[in-house]
C-alpha cells in the first residue's frame, strides 16, 4: 500500500512540476475521461473554474449528468489549478487539482494534505 501511495504521489508531483515551464493554457471545454466512460464540461464560474458531468456511457449512471464534480478551481501557476473535487461514486469531496498539458488534462482528488491522491486523465473533445 505504501508503495502505491508513494508512486501515485510521485506521479502527481512530477506531472505538476513538468508543466511549470509551459505557457498557461485554457482548460475550458469538454473533456473525455480515459476509458471513455464520461465527459465533463469545464467552464468559468464565479472567478474560478468548475466542471460538470456532461455525459456518461453507463445508462444506469444518467443521474450523474449535470452534477458538479470540480469547483473553486483557481490558478496555481502555469497550467495548474487547485480547488475541490467531488466523487459521485462515493459522494465525498476531496482536495482537487487539475494539470493541463496540450490537449490532455489530469485531475486528481487528494486526502491527508495531498499524501494520498487518485488521478484521472482526460482528452479534449473537438
Automatic annotation (TrEMBL):
Q: Which domain of life is it from?
A: Bacteria
Supply the PROSITE patterns for this chain: PROKAR_LIPOPROTEIN
Ordered alphabetically, the record's keywords are:
Signal
Q: Where is the DUF2147 domain?
A: 29-124
Question: Per the record, a Pfam family?
Answer: DUF2147
Q: Which InterPro entries match?
A: DUF2147
Which segment of the chain is annotated as a signal peptide? Answer: 1-24
Cross-referenced PANTHER family: BLL6627 PROTEIN, BLR1215 PROTEIN
Name this polypeptide is given? DUF2147 domain-containing protein
State the organism named in the record.
Methylocystis parvus
Which classification does the entry list for the species? Bacteria, Pseudomonadati, Pseudomonadota, Alphaproteobacteria, Hyphomicrobiales
Amino acid at each position: 500500500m505504501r508503495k502505491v501511495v508513494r508512486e501515485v504521489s510521485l506521479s502527481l508531483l512530477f506531472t505538476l512540476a513538468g508543466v511549470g515551464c509551459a505557457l498557461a493554457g485554457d482548460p475550458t471545454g469538454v473533456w473525455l475521461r480515459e476509458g471513455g466512460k464520461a465527459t465533463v464540461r469545464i467552464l468559468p464560474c464565479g472567478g474560478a473554474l468548475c466542471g460538470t458531468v456532461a455525459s456518461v456511457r453507463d445508462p444506469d449512471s444518467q443521474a450523474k449528468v449535470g452534477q458538479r464534480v470540480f469547483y473553486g478551481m483557481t490558478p496555481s501557476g502555469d497550467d495548474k489549478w487547485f480547488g475541490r473535487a467531488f466523487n459521485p461514486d462515493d459522494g465525498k469531496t476531496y482536495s482537487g487539482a487539475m494539470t493541463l498539458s496540450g490537449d490532455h488534462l489530469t485531475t486528481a482528488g487528494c486526502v491527508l494534505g495531498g499524501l494520498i491522491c487518485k488521478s484521472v486523465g482526460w482528452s479534449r473533445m473537438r
